[in-house]
Structures are given as structure tokens and as C-alpha cells.
Amino acid sequence: MKEYETLLVPGSCFDIENSLRIGYAFETTHLRDGMNQLGKFLAKLEQEAR
Predict the structure, then answer these.
(1) One digit per residue, pLDDT tens: the chain, 50 residues?
(2) DSSP H helical segments within 1-50, as ranges?
(3) Closest alpha carbon to 23 in 33, 37, 36, 9
(4) pLDDT at 28 (0 to 100)
(5) CA 26, 17, 8 angle in degrees (round to 5)?
(6) Which end is more exposed in the chain, N or C (fewer Cβ atoms within 10 Å of the end residue's Cβ)?
(7) pTM of this structure
(8) Other C-beta atoms within 10 Å of 13: how many?
(9) Spatial contact of 46 and 39, defined as CB atoms under 8 Å apart
């Protein structure tokens, strides 16, 4: 969260197993920015796994 300013919540917290919950309460641009940050984080994880 500190590095990418984005937060994901496991779906199991909402009784939805095997999923992630992405929530936003702002303009669409905030969601787009958050998804871009998520993409950067996932790319970093992929690089570290190699």
C-alpha cells in the first residue's frame, strides 16, 4: 500500500472465495490510476519470481 498507494481485499472477507475486491468511491480516473498501480505491482512480483 505504501509503495503503490493501492489496496486489494481478499474476496473471502466478503464470502466470495478465490477472488479480489477492488473498490473505489471517486472519479473513474482514480480507478484507472489504481489499476495502473496494481499492474506495476504485479509486474514487479512477476520479475521477482523469475
Answers:
(1) 788 777 788 999 999 999 988 877 778 888 888 889 889 999 999 999 99
(2) 28-49
(3) 9
(4) 85
(5) 30
(6) C
(7) 0.66
(8) 8
(9) no
Residue 1: CA count within 13 A, CB half-sphere: 3
Task: Look up residue 31 and give its three cell numbers.
Answer: 480507478
Residue matched to cell numbers 490510476: 33
Instruction: Specify the 3-state DSSP secondary structure of 4.
Output: coil
Alpha-carbon distance of 21 to 12, in angstroms, equals: 9
Residue 8 cell numbers, joined: 486489494
**pLDDT value, residue 42:** 92
Residue type, 32: R
